[in-house]
């Protein structure tokens, strides 16, 4: 994969990043409704692509990002600084657990590591980027609950079973499920990912929708093309 991924408004240099730009990240950044969020936090920003896509979408938002991998953090900061949104973006090279008090956020977003039951990758940096356990998610949910404004929201992209398990855990921290976007490769196939959005204090009906990536083998669906058109040169 080329080290530079060129978007319509910005470029992302992926060198030094264990996790490259992927479908999960770009769908998460483009599908979630961030509303009029003034302050957004991207946890585990990696290349910085999610934060950059949100900066393009949210012209009045201040965006912070955290990344524990020092090499990826440096690269993400370079990507931020070379973008048109540099003045609104801030990189914190640390884990969210060690993040200094920087105030409350309206929206927290993360494409987290979620291979909780897989054999760990022997590459230490890829292991850091891809593998985790439920203790991590407990800490993530607890941190988010404490760091969100009243009625603030948390958005994650996860495998189906993990999304369901975390829905129960999130409630214990006062984060209730607001919306679920079910992602499928093809119409009628099993769900491969869920985007789950939690909100502080929400207690209403959960909005559920489907998102289909392909209409045929190697052919993106109209909804995929429309969703990524503001970002991808190919569309």
Could you please say which CATH topology applies here?
Answer: Rossmann fold
Shape by Cα distribution: globular
Terminal CA distance: 19 Å
CATH H-tier superfamily: Vaccinia Virus protein VP39
Question: Which structural class do you get from the secondary structure elements?
Answer: alpha/beta
Reading the helices and strands in chain order gives EEHEHEHEEHHEHEEEEEH
Strand content: 25-35%
CATH class: Alpha Beta
Provide the helix percentage.
25-40%
CATH architecture: 3-Layer(aba) Sandwich
Could you report the average pLDDT, rounded to the nearest whole number?
Answer: 90
What is the subunit organization of this protein? single chain
Largest pleated sheet:
8 strands, mixed
Number of helices: 7
Report low-confidence residues grouped into runs of 5 or more: 116-131
Structural overview:
The chain has 235 residues and is of the alpha/beta class. The chain has a single domain (4-228), classed as Rossmann fold, CATH 3.40.50.150. Helices cover 30% and strands 29% of the residues. The protein contains seven helices and twelve strands. The strands form three sheets. An eight-stranded mixed β-sheet has the order 5-4-3-6-7-9-8-10, with helices on both faces. A two-stranded antiparallel sheet has the order 1-2. A two-stranded antiparallel ribbon has the order 11-12. Strand 1 and strand 2 form a beta hairpin. Helix 1 packs parallel to helix 2 (49-57). The longest helix has 14 residues, at 134-147. It is globular, with a radius of gyration of 17 Å. It starts with a strand and ends in a 7-residue tail after the last helix. The relative contact order is 0.15. Residues 116-131 have low confidence and may be disordered.
């Amino acid at each position: 994969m080329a080290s530079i991924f060129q978007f319509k408004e910005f470029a992302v240099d992926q060198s030094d990043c264990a996790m490259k730009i992927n479908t999960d990240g770009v769908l998460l950044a483009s599908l979630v409704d961030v509303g009029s969020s003034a302050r957004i936090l991207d946890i585990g920003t990696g290349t910085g692509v999610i934060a950059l896509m949100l900066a393009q979408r949210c012209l009045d938002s201040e965006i912070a990002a955290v990344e524990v991998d020092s090499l990826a953090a440096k690269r993400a900061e370079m990507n931020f600084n070379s973008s048109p949104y540099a003045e609104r973006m801030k990189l914190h090279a640390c884990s969210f657990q060690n993040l200094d008090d920087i105030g409350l956020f309206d929206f927290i977003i993360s494409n987290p590591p979620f291979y909780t039951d897989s054999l760990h990758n022997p590459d230490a940096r890829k292991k850091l980027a891809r593998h985790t356990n439920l203790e991590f998610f407990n800490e993530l949910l607890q941190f988010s609950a404490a760091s969100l404004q009243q009625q603030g929201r948390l958005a994650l992209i996860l495998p189906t079973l993990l999304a369901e398990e975390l829905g129960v855990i999130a409630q214990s921290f006062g984060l209730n499920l607001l919306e679920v976007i079910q992602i499928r490769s093809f119409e009628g196939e099993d769900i491969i990912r869920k985007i789950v959005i939690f909100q502080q204090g929400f207690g209403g009906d959960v909005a559920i929708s489907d998102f289909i990536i392909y209409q045929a083998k190697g052919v993106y669906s109209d909804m995929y093309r429309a969703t990524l058109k503001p970002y991808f040169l190919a569309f």
